[in-house]
Amino acid sequence: MHARLSFIHVLSPLHAGTGQGSGIIDLPIAREKATNLPYLPGSSLKGTLKSHYTGDNKTLIYGADKLDTYNEDHGASLVQISDQKLLLLPVRSLAGVFAWVTCPYVLHRLERDIKTTGRNTTNKSSITIPVVSSERCLVAKAVPNGGRAVKSAISMDVGREKAVYLEDLDFLAEENTEVTQWARWLGTRIFPNAQEWQDLLVERICIVHDDLFAFLLETATEVTARIRLQEESKTVESGGLWYEEALPTETILWGVVLATPRGNTSLSPEKIFDAVGQQSGQLLQSGGHATIGRGLCRFYLS
Fold it and tell me: Which fold has domain 1-16+42-82+247-302?
């Protein structure tokens, strides 16, 4: 199997919807049925990458358009892109503006994909997934960077303890070396060639218990009221008020990209990955509401 990891940094609210909802939110985001984890469908990302690709063999690599039934190259594509799953959820913090929050379960899933790809294991094999209690959260332990120490910006001194306040939740903060190692490893892949953002990840990463992360999945997404006005009176049309859900700005997602050469193609897996990686680090748009600036993001192939 030829596989590599992909990461997405969301730069404006991302709405990857599933159609009409049955609850209070009329247009919810896509979520896994069993885990409730939000995700960006792989088909959506694949269409975005295909529309921006300017190299050769576009139809061969990404497949023919559905309407292009007479194209002689019509068939399955040479690249498969998995759903891009939630890795780090930005949550408002009393200190440090916001925290990038994750949990052990999500890291276990990421670690499974890391092993599946067989890549990106440098400086990773010695990093373990920490255990965290429901009363505490784990933050990065200070590390030197040049003339200053990069340390957690979201923890506050409260008496003799340190605390983290996320939305209306409060936790005792515990500095953890493994959290720092995860932040450093992820930072080089999510923000390559951007040391200041790698340091920001160290300063703002936070690992909470799985149950608390499940609660944040329900409360920390962005919900916006939208209205449609009557053209003449500029008042709200009947039925013209609805609520949309989106992944907030600064969300981090990850997935897997597969290269499957077959038939008589002369394209090697590396050439296929080079084609997909053409958009790595570029500004892309995915999901709905492109005309109002939603879904801007950066894609990285690691």
Answer: Elongation Factor Tu (Ef-tu); domain 3 (2.40.30)
